[in-house]
Design brief:
2 copies of one chain form a homodimer.
Chain A lengths: L2 H11 L14 E5 L2 E4 L4 E4 L12 H11 L11 H12 L5 E7 L2 H16 L3 E5 L8 H5 L2 H4 L11 E4 L16 H18 L4 E7 L14 H11 L3 E5 L24 E4 L10 E6 H7 L13 H16 L2 H22 L3 E7 L2 E6 L10 H13 L2 E2 L1 E3 L5 E4 L7 H17 L6
Parallel strand pairs in A: 3-13, 5-6, 5-7, 7-8, 8-9
Antiparallel strand pairs in A: 1-2, 2-3, 4-10, 9-10, 11-12, 12-15, 14-15
Helix pairs in contact in A: 2-10, 3-10, 4-9, 7-8, 11-13
Chain lengths: ~425, ~425
């Protein structure tokens, strides 16, 4: 089909709320490693798909899927090796006492389950989230997502949700030059917990992405989660780390981004990269919380934990370990961020470069003092980069943060190419004044 | 691994709320057609897996999955043939004006999306459901599921949910001998709608499975949905048909079970059989509702509608059509139900045999007048049948309904074998008195 024919059928049979990337949409027919290919065979360097985590169509993952799909795909009501092998392996990547796994079909389902668990275990209902957070597309998760409820079509903050500021030390109220910033942002969480109690409510959980993504790839200041978790636990609530975007070694130094903050959450939610594109998700928690959740109401997930999903999950863990992708992400990411930061010497649009491993944000601003967001410029940049064969996207409350989260097989050479092309594009992008 | 080793790892790394089928759990390693095989190679006739809809590991579906997994698996932000081919095909199975598809990862996600759509389109919040209904495992769907909220671990009916009686003409207040039963049950829906308004609330939607499953495989009396939908629409609410269990030709006479009632819902939700075991789901609705939902808040589903899922979905539709599985389900199901009903002549435990196509319930009772549920007997029956190599399960509020919903390739011979074995088992099952 031609792109025009596809667009016509999309208009007829798909919802208008399903958007396409880029002003000039791409028809992609093949993926391999860090590359996507259009119908003409032109390769595009994929800098943004954190789902196909170990590389598009990784042969080992493909083969594991192909083999198991031909043998058995049924639910968890029968005994099978894969689910317990996978649960053991996954639990083994997490610090004690995180040892019990629940398998679901998506990150949204994982966060939904985490919320049910936290409510059941605490007997409470409310949740503290970070501003600009996105935790999923179900009704309950839109309620926990200021990224959704505070914007077009949103109904505003529900009563049971309390929003703490994103600990953004570039743009937020407490900045990198304030050595107390982490503690002050954590105090704001304590403030929300107190306000909830004063309002006659009680908080079941604090949900936070370990590196807030939709907020603009915000790296938490050192000590933030430790202090915030302290306040949350003091208030009798549970700490939920949403690792749907950032987990599975993307940060390089650790398996899980929360580990970079030196904390152990009560519940961890997993999604996107877990199956390299296969629809799956997971929740990992403590035995105590899993037992509290086992209150007589069975949790059954039709597809979650089936032998195909678990075979794929195992293959993804194998590849991360055997190809040393954590160390690779750490090294490539560090040098990549250095090169991106150097772009700032030549292009004053580049306000901030931040990230951990291969989860990186480049914030574009019109003025380095006022931090006026360079939203239109960011859009121009990603659209021009797409024409040059490099796929990027934008995020953050002002859509002015270039989001970089490629498959982990992304190389130093790829990073060099992105920097080189960005150098050209940034020089030519038309500047706006407000 | 031995079953004991698997059980030990399940205890360590899985939640206790994840239950196994049968007193003597099975370790299943392979599936083919209507059969599952244990490690010794012993075949079990699968009479209960409506997920592996066209047969376990159907070669055509397996091949479609294997091919696409090796080529591309990415999200819907790029143009691709499969998603629009699949959306067109799926929409083509539904009556006008159902023509817009949304793709998700599970039936729970489909019902969550349907609820979000209904609320956005109507600007209202409440929902009328049927008693004993189950619509999914997310927080929002547990709220709509009396099967969950009214039982162990449940918090009872939420304020925004209104429960109408299941139109069960075997056990409910209006029975098969009442020619007005359908209208009376539909009037109860109208009653809930009125009560909601009197309570100062307003109803966004009526959710109903087109054949209520957890309520005990209850075939709706003729005219019920037409009358109920009439009341719902008069009240300005939308009609949601949950076809997660019963869709895709299982009823034989039609693609969709709601068609057997002569109605066209406003929103239809799909899951389980849609991908023959692959994690996927869908929502199909009208352009008007899809447009109302497109209110500025994007709906994005990371995995939903990816090329692998759509290739699998297309292959499932192909197999249903090319193998004539709808006609097959109609014929096999009809003769199967006749044979099951004849068991009632010899075994007074058999209180009722009902169903459409290959979605069948056999309700066991201790007394045909009092209808006292033969719960323990039903459990004995399915456990003894499992020892004889036939997989069945129970459902219904008293867990006394033997649930039969095999892969559609299930044959007349298979049905004959089930009837023969049931004849023996029913004769020997110990009887209880209350």
């Amino acid at each position: 089909m031609t792109p025009e024919e596809i667009l016509e059928l999309r208009r007829r049979h798909l919802g208008g709320s399903l958007s396409l990337s880029y002003r000039n949409p791409l028809k992609i027919v093949r993926g391999e490693g860090q590359f996507l290919f259009d119908e003409s065979g032109r390769p595009y360097l994929d800098c943004v798909n954190n789902v196909c985590h170990v590389g598009h169509c990784h042969p080992r993952v493909v083969e594991a899927a192909q083999r198991q799909i031909g043998a058995l795909n049924t639910n968890t009501r029968y005994l099978h090796d894969h689910i317990v092998e996978y649960a053991s392996r996954l639990a083994g990547t997490m610090p004690d006492p995180l040892e019990v796994c629940f398998f679901v079909c998506s990150g949204s389902e994982a966060n939904e389950l985490a919320l049910r668990m936290a409510r059941t275990a605490t007997g409470r209902r409310d949740v503290v989230v970070l501003d600009s957070a996105y935790h999923g597309n179900t009704g309950g998760m839109v309620d926990l997502s200021p990224y959704k409820f505070d914007h077009a079509g949103g109904a505003g903050k529900p009563e049971h949700v309390h929003v703490a500021p994103v600990p953004d030390t570039y743009r937020g109220p407490h900045r990198a030059d304030d050595p107390e910033a982490a503690g002050k942002y954590a105090d704001a969480v304590a403030g929300e917990l107190r306000r909830a109690v004063l309002g006659g409510r009680s908080v079941a959980a604090f949900f936070a992405e370990s590196i807030p993504g939709c907020a603009g790839q915000v790296v938490l200041p050192d000590g933030y989660l430790e202090a915030a978790f302290g306040h949350v636990r003091e208030a009798g609530a549970l700490c939920v780390a949403d690792e749907v975007q950032v987990g599975f070694g993307r940060v390089g130094s650790h398996w899980w981004a929360y580990e970079t903050q030196g904390v152990v959450p009560d519940i961890v939610t997993l999604g996107k990269p877990i199956g390299n594109g296969h629809p799956m998700g997971a929740v990992v928690t403590t035995r105590a919380i899993a037992d509290a959740f086992d209150n007589g109401m069975e949790y059954f997930n039709t597809f979650g934990g089936n032998p195909v999903s678990c075979a794929i999950g195992l293959a993804v863990l194998d590849v991360i370990e055997e190809e040393g992708l954590r160390a690779h992400a750490l090294n490539v990411g560090a040098r990549f961020r250095e090169g991106l930061a150097e772009l700032g010497d030549r292009h004053d649009l580049v306000g901030d470069v931040r990230g951990l491993g291969l989860f990186i944000g480049v914030e574009l601003v019109r003025d380095r003092d006022s931090l006026e967001p360079a939203t239109e410029e960011a859009s121009d940049v990603i659209n021009q980069m797409r024409e040059r064969g490099i796929l990027l996207s934008t995020d953050g409350p002002f859509e002015n943060v270039i989001k970089i989260k490629p498959p982990l097989v992304f190389s130093h050479e790829d990073a060099g190419r992105v920097i080189g092309e960005l150098d050209v594009v940034l020089a030519g992008v038309p500047r706006r004044t407000s």
